[in-house]
Amino acid sequence: MDIEHLDYRSLTVFESVSRHLNAGLAANELGMSSSTVSRHMANLREVFQDVLFIRRCHGFVPTDKATQILPIINRILMDYQELKSSHTQFDPSTAREHFTIYAYNEFTYITNKAVNEVILPKAPNLSFEVRTLSSDCSRAIENGDIDFAVVYENFGGDKLIGELISPTEEMYLIAKEGHSVFNAEPTLENLCRHPYFELDNFDDIPCPLLSQVARQHGLELKVAGYTDNLAALSRHLMDTNAIALSCNAFTREYLKLVRNLRTCTLPKEVTRQLIDLIDVGRTVGNYLVYSQINQSPTHNWVKQQLLDTLRAEWYRNLGQPVPEL
């Protein structure tokens, strides 16, 4: 084994392939071509005199040697990152990495805006993939397959970190222009007089919060349907007599652009009752979620750019200054 031929980039390739068990995914994450990953893998096999990963139909399987050296390589990479972050100056204009971001439907536009208008002008060599999130992605974030997720309360995992973008303090009633629900104060009793369409981004709540609060007061809410898509919700509301609720300032801003739809803020007492049903042991709100396994300078820089931009845009939509969180 000629350890002198071992280099930092080969170690990062080994770590990424070990995590993904797929050379293509490792190439995407590291911003390399598949041929470059193959070249580094060939170097690693020569250094360690072992095939390291056996190709199977479902992906790579690490050999015993690969399993034994992975913890050592992880420690070396952590020391590299500490040295880099503590004793070198980070320059985003020279950074080269690929980032995968998943966001709920209401957050995808503003996330793309942050990427294209804030991050890429400063770091043009980075690449991004922003996708709509509609299911639990906690394991993929923990493993590093997804770099960031912009979510409501629905995430968990020992290796996950969630940084608050904004707390949930307002909720908005949505219905078509001229709907009778706007003729009176939107109390709980008045809301329950109309069919309700749930904007549901996640399947962890058995029934809408509004329905649960209604039952606590001896009322019944007729649920007309569910959707996780803003465009679909808009059509449903325009074509029927249904109402909907949202706690998202970006949703309200989008719906202002939709002809014949109207929003208004719910009374604070109704909002409080709805939010009180969400028991997650932390501030109810919107979060940027990521894994603690990736602490590279570029990852940390992108994280801060996303947080700052999403927070600023949220409070700009509310017409408020950005608070210290």
UniProtKB/TrEMBL annotation:
Transmembrane segments: none annotated. It comes from the Bacteria. InterPro entries: LysR-type_TF (IPR050389), LysR_HTH_N (IPR000847), LysR_subst-bd (IPR005119), WH-like_DNA-bd_sf (IPR036388), WH_DNA-bd_sf (IPR036390). The keyword Oxidoreductase does not apply. The keyword Transcription regulation applies. SUPFAM superfamilies: Periplasmic binding protein-like II, Winged helix' DNA-binding domain. GO terms for molecular function: DNA binding; DNA-binding transcription factor activity. Residues 6-63 form the HTH lysR-type domain. Keywords: DNA-binding, Transcription, Transcription regulation. PANTHER family: HTH-TYPE TRANSCRIPTIONAL REGULATOR LEUO-RELATED, TRANSCRIPTIONAL REGULATOR LYSR FAMILY. Belongs to the LysR transcriptional regulatory family. This is DNA-binding transcriptional regulator, LysR family.
